[in-house]
Amino acid sequence: MRILSGVQSSGRLHIGNYYGAIRQFVQLQQEGDAFFFIANYHSLTTLRDAKLAETYTREAAMAYLSLGLDPKKAVLFRQSDVREVLELYWLLGTVVPVANLERATSYKDKLAKGISADFGLFAYPVLMAADILLYSPDFVPVGKDQIQHIEFARDWAVKFNLTYVPGYDPQDPEGKEKGHAPGLLKLPSARVQEDTATVPGVDGQKMSKSYGNTIDLFGDEKEIKKRVMGIKTDSTAVEAPKPTENAPLYDLLKLMLPADRFAEVDASWRAGGKGYGEYKKLLLATYLETFGPARQRYAELANDPAELERILQDGAERARAEASGLMQRLRRAVGVP
Ligand code: TYM
User: Which domain of life is it from (predicted)?
Assistant: First the structure.
């Protein structure tokens, strides 16, 4: 089984990235042939500062390693180190219906906010499909917000195969039956952990860099404390039972606490008698306990940029070896020498 996924390096990583995605990456590297990358080309759709772009890319790599990804088990690499991805992006783009891109959520959201979109944002899902299809994974572990992108990748892979592979039958994509040919592009599936599909931010909306509602994984402790203490709550009195709906504090406690400890919290939350402040302190303590060791490793890695670069170069080489074989076959299929 092959697994591939990535995170954008458009800012600091937050606990939504961890629970929605990276935690699964760490488990999955034990189960199959895993590729995890840093989508630094994608980040240029929102980040226009060379120094910051490099910093966030490096930080994302440090986050991967300190949270438990092991370069001996998984291939860890920067998207931009395998330039073939841009070539596949173009080839795919020639079969992508514009109507698909017009209903891509990130593009639609931007337009709805009255912000004019650049071509890079419009074409974002095509580059993401290229990221995936270049490495022929079976599964792509992601949070819920990325499912549409993976469905697009699947649809476009079918369309590409239908266009360029004689004997390809979408009902038999692996070409198992006689007379059928396997597709050049393998069809990927999203893999979403249901209980952490959408992690809420401190304001109750989806946690996202672009909403400014994140709890960062490696941020300054004072800043984290400020964010946690600022989690949106209602005006229910201390002694009264607390509502569990639309309550990001409750949801975050559920996410972060082990089940037995959360059961106690849940009972007292429903019974009343404790103020929100106490629950916030518990959440902060849980955060520090959970991420303390990773934060420590992160600080150590920050002192060894040469080792980090060596790991990324090694990952790039392994990723490139994989990508170049497929790219040669694709060039032949479309008639590009
Ligand atoms: P990005 O960088 O926004 O997020 C990285 C991963 O974290 C998940 N995630 C969340 N999960 C649950 N709750 C949240 N609040 C939350 N916020 C983020 C995302 O679902 C994602 O799995 N387009 C991608 C990056 C990308 C990619 C790829 C992913 C580029 N190419 C190829 C997989 C395969 C993105 O912007 O994710």
Answer: Bacteria
Assess whether 144 carries a catalytic annotation.
no
pLDDT of residue 43: 95
What pLDDT shows up at residue 79? 98
The yes or no reply on domain 2-199+304-334 and CATH 3.40.50.620 is yes
User: Ligand 1: does its nearest atom lie under 6 Å from the Cβ of 128?
Assistant: yes
Ligand 1 pocket, residue 131 CB under 6 Å: yes
178 is catalytic: no
Question: Does 203 sit in the ligand 1 pocket, CB within 6 Å?
Answer: no
95-141 residue pLDDT tens:
999 999 999 988 998 888 887 889 999 999 999 999 999 999 999 99
The per-type count for the chain, helices as H runs and strands as E runs, is 15, 5
What are the residue boundaries of the structural domains of the chain, listed by start? 2-199+304-334, 219-299
110 annotated active-site: yes
pLDDT, position 131: 98
Residues of the chain with pLDDT under 50: none
The phi and psi torsions of 208 (rounded to 5 degrees) equal -155, 140
pLDDT of residue 113: 84
What pLDDT is attached to residue 196? 87
The residue contributing the CA closest to ligand 1 atom 18 is 17
Distance in angstroms (rounded) separating the CA atoms of residues 173 and 108: 31
Q: Distance between CA 154 and CA 160 in Å, rounded?
A: 10
Instruction: Determine whether the shortest distance from the Cβ of 44 to ligand 1 is under 6 A.
Output: no
Tell which one of 36, 44, 59, 146 to mutate to probe ligand 1, the residue whose CB is within 8 A of the most ligand atoms.
146
CA 145 to CA 299: how far, in whole Å? 30
| pTM of the full structure | 0.95
CA–CA separation, 156 vs 88, rounded Å? 12
> Among the options 110, 186, 242, 280, which is catalytic?
110
Q: Is the distance from the beta carbon of residue 280 to the nearest atom of ligand 1 less than 6 Å?
A: no
* pLDDT at position 106: 85
- Pick one of 3.40.50.970, 3.40.50.300, 1.10.240.10, 1.10.540.10 as the CATH number of 219-299: 1.10.240.10
